[in-house]
Automatic annotation (TrEMBL):
<dbReference type="InterPro" id="IPR029062">
    <property type="entry name" value="Class_I_gatase-like"/>
</dbReference>
<dbReference type="Pfam" id="PF07584">
    <property type="entry name" value="BatA"/>
</dbReference>
<feature type="transmembrane region" description="Helical">
    <location>
        <begin position="627"/>
        <end position="647"/>
    </location>
</feature>
<keyword id="KW-0472">Membrane</keyword>
<feature type="transmembrane region" description="Helical">
    <location>
        <begin position="56"/>
        <end position="78"/>
    </location>
</feature>
<dbReference type="InterPro" id="IPR024163">
    <property type="entry name" value="Aerotolerance_reg_N"/>
</dbReference>
<feature type="domain" description="Aerotolerance regulator N-terminal">
    <location>
        <begin position="1"/>
        <end position="76"/>
    </location>
</feature>
<protein>
    <submittedName>
        <fullName>N-terminal double-transmembrane domain-containing protein</fullName>
    </submittedName>
</protein>
<keyword id="KW-0812">Transmembrane</keyword>
<keyword id="KW-1133">Transmembrane helix</keyword>
<feature type="transmembrane region" description="Helical">
    <location>
        <begin position="6"/>
        <end position="24"/>
    </location>
</feature>
<dbReference type="InterPro" id="IPR011933">
    <property type="entry name" value="Double_TM_dom"/>
</dbReference>
Amino acid sequence: MQFKHPEILYALLLLIIPIIVHLFQLQRFVKIPFTNVKFLKNIEQQTRKSARLKKWFILLTRMLAFTCLIFAFSQPYFSKHRTTQKLNTTIYLDNSFSMQAKGENGELLKNIAQHIIENNTNPNQKISLLTNNDFFKNSTPENLKNELMSIKYYPHKLELSTLLLQLNSNRSNKTNTLNESILISDFQNINNKNKIDVTNVNFPIQLLKTTPTKINNIYIDRIYTEATSLEETTLNVVIKSTLKNNLSIPISLFEDTKLIGKTTAKFDNSTSKIVQFNIPKTTKFNGKISLVDNFLTFDNDFFFTLSKPTKINVLSIGKNSTFLRKIYTENEFNFNTSLLPNLNYNNIQKQHLILLNELENIPAELANNLLEFSKNGGSVVIIPSEKSNINRYNYFLNLLQIGNINYKIKQEHKITTINYKHPLLQDVFEKPITNFQYPTTSIYFESTLNSSSNIISFENNSPFISSIDFKNNSVYWVASPLNKNNSNFTQSSLIVPVFYNFAKKSVQLSELYYTISPNTNIDVLTEIGKDAVLKVSNEATEFIPLQTISNNKVRLDLQDHILKSGFYNITSANKTLQTIAFNYNRDESNLDYMDLQQLISTNKNITTVASVAAIFSSIHDQQKINWLFKWFLAFSVLFLCIEMLILKYFKI
């Protein structure tokens, strides 16, 4: 029981007054002469007993009457919250693409939105609505209805950890506010990639899990190309199903909007199938792969672009190493090599990757030019010589602010450890190498590098090749000379992917396709004026992304501007420089759902609810108040009436 005016209860202290009146005999008696003393003593004894009992009855009824009257004025009630409390209710509604799945009454998202509109009928009730891309605070039923009717699917799904942080930040910390949070989603496992610990959640959360009527989704997972001839490129399309089946799914290939090929994906009791298309090699091909599956529609189309590859400029300063020329071939790279005395410093800023190939000394002029090159987004690979001047190398490393060389060690070491998760190698190996023949070096330079990550390491865990990554470029340090007299690493199978990716990662060239993400960067190999800007556009939208301009390229940071799959043109002064393709992330296509019991079992603040109607019934119960003052007022009158009856009919 709670009280609207608990301060009135202090009046209960006044009840001591009638107690004092009843306990102390304040009456004055009149003496009357009477001769029969024995009879009088008997009457006196009976009268005293009756009078004492009557007084106690009167005291009790009067005390109860005043107590009920005081309680009535303090306005007692039963409720799950205090009347002075405000109810702060936030509903998270998952509007990601997986909510396109069909339930018993149509698409899950639209069905839930309609149920919320139908149940949110209290005109005085305000609810905050949180989605994957928006937040509507304290909406009235009419505003909430408009927001729900206009809700659209969004390509980025909030992780559970991020969602809980947002809900916690939206909570009111005021003592007179009751916070209520409801999460409505299909709760896929991708919501909980980081396996969040929910034991520290200290506010009540209700979970409503939406469930589709079936979980068989067929979708285009990815594509990749193979160069089969000089005239054609083979396009491999990976089609997946969430369940094994024997379906035959028609697959179509379009060039822009023109249908140019069809084939069929026959699953044959499997969950994956690869189909192929042969595409003529042209300077530009904007393609789209399509299938028909009504369960989820966002993953039925896959966009891609094929264009003539842009060559990457690579300059090697130092020894003329044969292995570099074999890696940096003419069809992909503009590779040049120069001895230090013959170096044309004007060509440095035109490169994308520069290799310092076993220089004994790094002159100040070269160091300063490479510093400017690095600041403009160029990547540098440093391979020392066995005769390297450590002081001159440290001068250059300090210019780049990446650390220093400590000393040279003349001792044979095996190269044993590969960091398969490093961005340089993460797409190279399908699985860890088990029968690896370890290369060796006879000399290596011990160094201390700032914020470096190992790519390949020696058996003693010292770095053999490491990277220091900046926002727009990287510096790679090779701890040993690579000539045949010192190391056999150039004979290893690792030499090609490592040095090939040094160049490929130096420029983020246009890819076959991009996945829509808030962290997409693209390098456009062009030169524009300082006041000029590049624009990204399609038939529906146009925007100017963040861009970093260097001497021979412009890096675009697209952030979260692109939210729809399709083709986008990168333009400068109304001239299209290149076309890029974007597709929705396929993580949601794999219908893998969380077990909510694992969350509930670890925290009593987290509960599940069966329906939207149950949610609003709970909200109504939170706001429901059962007033008791009428009952206390009635009992006060009742006790006063009992007192009057006692006074009238209880004869002494």
